[in-house]
Design a protein that fits this description.
46% of the residues lie in helices and 8% in strands. It is mainly alpha-helical. The longest helix has 17 residues, at 17-33. The structure holds one RNA strand.
RNA sequence: GUCCCCAUCGUCCAGAGGCCCAGGACGCUGGCCUUUCAAGCCGGUAACAGGGGUUCGAAUCCCCUUGGGGACACCA
């Protein structure tokens, strides 16, 4: 049987480095084995998924040099490759499990579940559904469903025995069945949860190896039990280590740039990022760390992936990137610069902002350098960010809060759950409301933002600057400024 | 709290019982080169978490402790 693996991102946000990381290892394994690498979109969360996010993920994965044999954009024999287009399938499979007594309808509402959770928390016991609806007679369940009552479908997990499975990197892993929750398989909107959709699709798409991040280990027993309930053979499981922040916690955007777009905008070469990611948990040889994708494919061996807890270290990435840049021919470097931000596309966005402040063409760089810099030097200007009546700590805090709210403005900032668009008008509106809500003068906050983003107190209009800088650089620079303020004493 | 995973320099990796008083890279650091700064070259710094076993022999195997992490949603 030939190898078939997949990357299954959920299109609910920016293209994540973790996705590229796991995709890379799936890709290397598939190619080395002469198998297929599939891209499947797991958009079963109707409220959070978007086509824009999907497009961004595909674009970013291509950017790091990956390609796939089957997927929503290229098609393939096991399509559709977007789970939202396969909902009927999951419904049928859920029904099958109900008929077999492996699953049941649950009519418990959100209030009861919240109450249950509260009690369990208070009792310091195990969290999870108590199985109330599991005891419902089939006829009653049918009748209430037919009457239009809202329900979810839960899996009836075995109450005794153990669930044992093998992880390729970690060996045998054992969970007591009694500790496995009666997982929701089908939500009340008729859409499947991850667990159902993932298992059904992996089986139908004939996936042979599930290579995914370590965070999934604890839900693997649910999946194994699902395969058993369906009477299917489970694929082989390979849980890759999780990428980490400096403090060893799971990599997160509060502590690390996490979007692939950031690395692109910050001037990282895709091949350097790809190479760096490959180094997380794997090596091609003891004394070698630079290699091409093709070389990785040629040498790849899943059994030589280590299970440590790799910290994503920007400093090392930068060094690698420098090596890649030095290796480029002059022509290639100029080409890369143009593709990046020195081409007419980006220049056309910068020029209108900078031109008013130019006396000679040469002033362009002096006035607009910060649009291109990877790192803003704030040493000389940190102190200027702090308004007269405020402290460094307060200023750091407001910058951090600003970053948070930009991505997740509460209803009081008029954003609902959608993040703020990065354009002059919405930024201005948001920022003024933000000042109001936090009792900061616009001129206080705006100067802090200006310096944090540009390193200068005299710049083009703030919000246009943010728009052109882009979301990722904006976030990174504001966070960097906040950190420098905190380091002040 | 419950369950699970992990454990070599500050960081990323090498090490699959003797080749290891542990090797490479980043970082930091001394020097060379050089009008400067990088780059490059030469050198230094720095680790097998602790304790028990197994074995002639353990960084490598087993157990315990400790530490770190993850999961416990009608999110994936």
């Amino acid at each position: 049987m030939s190898v078939r693996v997949r990357i299954a991102p959920s299109p609910t946000g920016d293209p994540h480095v973790g996705t590229a990381y796991i995709a890379l290892f799936n890709y290397a394994f598939a190619r080395h084995q002469g198998g297929k690498f599939i891209l499947r979109i797991e958009d079963t969360d109707q409220t959070r998924s978007s086509l824009e996010s999907e497009a961004a993920i595909l674009r970013a994965l291509k950017w790091v040099g990956l390609s796939w044999d089957e997927g929503p954009d290229v098609g393939g024999p096991f399509g559709p490759y977007r789970q939202s287009e396969r909902v009927a399938l999951y419904g049928e499979h859920a029904k099958l499990l109900i008929q077999r007594g492996k699953a049941y309808r649950c009519f418990c509402g959100a209030e009861r579940l919240a109450e249950l959770r509260k009690q369990q928390l208070a009792a310091k016991g195990a969290l999870g559904y108590d199985g109330l609806c599991r005891a419902l007679p089939a006829e009653e369940s049918e009748r209430r469903a037919a009457a239009g009552e809202s329900f979810v479908v839960r899996m009836a997990m075995p109450r005794e025995g153990d669930c044992i499975f093998r992880d390729r990197l970690r060996g045998e892993i054992k969970f007591a069945n009694s500790g496995i929750d009666d997982q929701v398989l089908l939500k009340s909107d008729g859409f499947p949860t991850y667990h159902l959709a993932n298992v059904v699709d992996d089986h139908l798409m004939q996936i042979t190896h599930v290579i995914r991040a370590e965070e999934w280990i604890s839900s693997t027993p649910k999946h194994v039990l699902l395969y058993e309930a369906f009477g299917w053979q489970a694929p082989e499981f390979v849980h890759m280590p999780l990428l980490r922040n400096k403090d060893k916690s799971k990599i997160s955007k509060r502590k690390n740039p996490v979007s692939l777009d950031y690395y692109r905008d910050a001037g990282i070469l895709p091949e350097a990022l790809r190479n760096f990611l490959a180094l997380m948990g794997w090596s091609i040889a003891a004394d070698r760390e630079r290699f091409t994708l093709e070389e990785m494919v040629g040498a790849f061996d899943l059994d030589r992936v280590s299970t440590g807890e790799p910290v994503f270290d920007l400093v090392k990435l930068m060094d690698l990137n420098g090596q890649y840049i030095r290796e480029l021919s002059n022509e290639a470097l100029v080409e890369r610069l143009q593709e990046w931000r020195m081409g007419s596309g980006f220049m056309n966005r910068v020029a209108p902002l900078v031109r008013e402040r130019m006396k000679t063409l040469g002033d362009f760089m002096a006035q607009g350098a910060f649009f291109f810099l990877s790192e803003i030097d704030l040493k000389a200007s940190v102190a200027q960010m702090i308004p007269k009546e405020r402290t460094a700590k307060e200023t750091a805090a407001i910058l951090k809060e600003y970053i948070e709210r930009l991505d997740d403005p509460g209803p009081e900032l008029g954003g609902g759950r959608r993040r703020i668009e990065l354009n002059d008008k919405s930024l201005e509106e948001f920022s003024r409301a933000f000042c109001e809500a936090n009792k900061w003068q616009p001129k206080e906050l705006f100067m802090a933002l200006r310096i944090a983003l540009t390193g200068k107190s005299a710049t083009p209009p703030l919000f246009s600057t943010m728009e052109v800088l882009g979301r990722e650089l904006t976030r990174k620079r504001l966070r960097g400024a906040a950190e420098q303020l905190e380091a002040l004493k």
